[in-house]
Amino acid sequence: xxxxxxxxxxxxxxxxxxxxxxxxxxxxxxxxxxxxxxxxxxxxxxxxxxxxxxxxxxxxxxxxxxxxxxxxxxxxxxxxxxxxxxxxxxxxxxxxxxxxxxxxxxxxxxxxxxxxxxxxxxxxxxxxxxxxxxxxxxxxxxxxxxxxxxxxxxxxxxxxxxxxxxxxxxxxxxxxxxxxxxxxxxxxxxxxxxx
Length: 195
Fold this sequence. Notes:
This protein is α+β, with helices and mostly antiparallel strands and 195 residues long.
């Protein structure tokens, strides 16, 4: 069976994951530390932000790795709108830690907007296609003129939506022209008066 455009599940899954991570990071801090010679490098999320940086002195043996998941007390969600630097002392003075902190809520909002836009485009494309009501096969390439179309997948006789709306209107045939239309499953012969 032929299918139309595929649903944007990828962007939706990414938006859900980022939103879920942002919501969870308000209450929980999750981090991974990698130990180097004199400092530990950290990648983690907490207080609605992603943090990348290092702390000194190292608390683990060289080459070690540590994962932590702790409860966040008091900070809550930080609503910064752009990345910023955090440290004990301002740069270039020595500090026991330095982090680049990236707020997650703008990323989650952007992901939700992109996902909503892609679902809207998907729905618009699906609505614009002429499909068989029985099996859903796209009939767009077969619809050369307004009238009956036989579905190549299931064999059902289908009509374009514009034709279905205008089935009650009088036929547009010139004098002494015999017009045949297939409506649903029966053939109707319409003859001009005066013949």
